[in-house]
Amino acid sequence: MIRRILMYIILILGAFMLQNNFFAAVHWIDITPNLLLIVTFEFGFLRGSMHGMIIGFFCGLLSDFFFGTNVGYYALIYTLIGYANGSVGTLFYNEFLNMPTLLCILSDLLLGLYVYITSFLIGGATNLWHYMLHVILPEIVYTMLICLLTYKPLRALDRWVEGLSKRSAKEFV
Predict the structure, then answer these.
(1) What is the per-residue pLDDT for 24?
(2) Residue 81 and residue 56 in contact, taking contact as beta carbons nearer than 8 Å
(3) What pTM was estimated for this model as a whole?
């Protein structure tokens, strides 16, 4: 259990630093992939709703502390995304890339619409199509490409840590 928690902490901090340092410095299309969202939905999908909610909460809290105006703004949506992906993950086989790719698209779309509605629409900006074409869709594409590259290595890492936990439990007994 301690190994899994340590893995989650390292992944969350690593994804945060990569997202905001490396990808922010590489100006491809002025959009960075949302690596915290990838970690949230992938481990929600792989490990279930509880793990997805916990990882989502801490990813959102990290985003709130560094970028949000209110604490809890991103924590709420990341927690809900982790829960939803964990609920879906129990229903589908996680060996293939089609379901994680679809979940990545839906999660990023949900996050983008949440930010648009709560930040821009309430403030009076009503041009959804402009925001959709210039912010949400490029981020979805970029995040999805990174998701396709990271899904199998993260799944292998999760299985490796699970195997270590099972071996140490057998040695304990």
Answers:
(1) 79
(2) yes
(3) 0.89
* Cα 172 from Cα 125, distance rounded (Å): 59
In a domain, 8, yes or no: yes
Nearest residue to 109 via CA among 146, 88, 136: 136
Please choose, from the candidates 99, 116, 91, 112, the residue with its C-alpha nearest in 3D space to the C-alpha of residue 41.
99
Is 105 within 8 Å of 140 (Cβ atoms)? yes
What CATH number did the domain enclosing 37 receive?
1.10.1760.20
Instruction: Report whether 44 contacts 52 (CB < 8 A).
Output: yes
Of 38-42, 67-71, 152-156, give the lowest mean pLDDT range. Answer: 67-71
**Quick check: is 171 in a domain?**
no
Domain count, the chain: 1
Cα 50 to its chain centre, rounded Å, is 14
Provide the residue range defining the domain that includes 127: 2-165
Q: Considering the domain boundaries, does residue 170 fall inside one?
A: no
Tell me the backbone φ, ψ of residue 36, rounded to 5 degrees: -65, -35
Given a cut of 60, whether residue 173 has pLDDT beyond it is no
In-domain check, residue 141: yes
